[in-house]
Amino acid sequence: QVQLVESGGGLVQAGGSLRLSCAASGSIFTIVAMGWYRQAPGKQRELVATKNSGGGTNYADSVKGRFTISRDNAKNTVYLQMDSLNSEDTAVYYCNARGYSDYRNQYFEDWWGQGTQVTVSS
């Protein structure tokens, strides 16, 4: 079993900042990537940002220049610093980790957090 525990969501005014954190624990052999996705009401879940173990990052166009993803590989923790927030950033944010729970596994697994609400008021 792998658990992802998120924290840091909340209510913020437009133009403000929030920092999300997510720690992975449990039966983990290795994690190859961690990231954040979000889902707004009536919309599909979308990628926000990911960072692999080699340091490569990927951001949604809508958050480039405003959000910064970082990782502490030793702690299996990922962070998302969100600046210049606007109402379109309002969503439930989900932490994702991709990896292997056992060295014998041929295929990676995707693990998800329970989600944390981010609400931006205008």
Give a written overview of the molecule.
This protein is mainly β and 122 residues long. Helix content is 0%, strand content 58%. It contains no helices and eleven strands. The strands form two sheets. Strands 2, 4, 5, 6, 9, 10 and 11 form a seven-stranded mixed β-sheet that branches. It has a four-stranded antiparallel β-sheet with strand order 1-3-8-7, with no helix packed on it. The protein starts with a strand and ends with a strand.
Write the layout of secondary structure elements.
Elements (H helix, E strand, L loop, with lengths): L1 E6 L2 E4 L4 E9 L3 E10 L6 E7 L4 E3 L7 E6 L4 E6 L8 E10 L8 E4 L3 E6 L1
Give the SSE order as H and E letters. EEEEEEEEEEE
Q: If helices are DSSP runs of H or I spanning 4 or more residues, what is the number of helices?
A: 0
Roughly what percent helix? under 10%
Q: How can the largest sheet be summarized?
A: 7 strands, mixed
Total DSSP E strands: 11
Shape descriptor reads elongated
Please state the average pLDDT score: 95
Radius of gyration, taken over Cα atoms and rounded to an integer in Å: 14 Å
* Main structural class: mainly beta
